[in-house]
């Protein structure tokens, strides 16, 4: 998977060199759909359950046809998800879904009538995700990977030529990751508030 990510970055960098493009870097935070079956598996009357559906992320991207109202772009993200945990008070053991990361690659169309002001974009792509499953009851721990498609869109306010503040929405399809009877399902909507810096 690391080779795929490096290849995607290389393609993006090559494309930026042959086309007029704005390069941007961004940070974002938000929440997203998250479902699991830890309580069904443990089935204990004395437990502590925590489900953190918060997401922190960063991204690198390129707006091609810089300066035009109709633009195409591509961006590569890195998202870190909150941990889900189930503590069985009876057995003094834990079920954990942790170390969850996702790397979405998104191609998009953007409409920008002016260099500043409101910009609108819509696109889609694929996401590679990795999740560690841990079951202390049977001394089990394993990391599983999954690739799934996503759709995305958003609105961004370019406060200045080099600064953007955006509201992004993603929808993940068929994003259930499973291992040893446990699962965490990210299928559904994600929402982010993003801050971006642009470089011409």
From TrEMBL:
Keywords: Signal. Pfam families: OMP_b-brl. Residues 1-20 form the signal peptide. The keyword Acetylation does not apply. InterPro entries: Beta-barrel_OMP, OMP/PagP_B-barrel. Gene3D superfamilies: 2.40.160.20. It comes from the Bacteria. Residues 7-175 form the Outer membrane protein beta-barrel domain. This is Outer membrane protein beta-barrel domain-containing protein. It comes from Elusimicrobium minutum (strain Pei191). The lineage of its organism: Bacteria, Pseudomonadati, Elusimicrobiota, Elusimicrobia, Elusimicrobiales.
């Amino acid at each position: 998977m690391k080779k795929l990510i490096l290849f995607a970055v290389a393609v993006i960098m090559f494309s930026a060199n042959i086309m007029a493009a704005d390069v941007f870097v961004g940070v974002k935070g938000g929440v997203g759909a998250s479902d699991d079956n830890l309580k069904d598996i443990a089935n204990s009357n004395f437990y502590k359950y925590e489900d953190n559906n918060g997401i922190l992320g960063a991204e690198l991207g390129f707006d091609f046809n810089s300066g035009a109202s109709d633009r195409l772009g591509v961006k590569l993200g890195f998202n870190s998800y909150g941990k889900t945990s189930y503590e069985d008070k009876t057995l003094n053991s834990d079920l954990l879904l942790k170390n969850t990361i996702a790397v979405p690659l998104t191609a998009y169309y953007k409409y920008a009538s002016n260099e500043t002001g409101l910009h609108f974009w819509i696109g889609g792509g694929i996401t590679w995700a990795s999740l560690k499953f841990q079951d202390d009851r049977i001394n089990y721990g394993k990391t599983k990977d999954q690739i799934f498609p996503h759709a995305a869109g958003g609105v961004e306010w370019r406060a200045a030529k080099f600064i953007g503040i955006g509201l992004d929405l993603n929808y993940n399809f068929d994003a259930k990751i499973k291992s040893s009877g446990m699962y965490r399902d990210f299928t559904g909507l994600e929402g982010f508030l993003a801050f971006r810096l642009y470089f011409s």
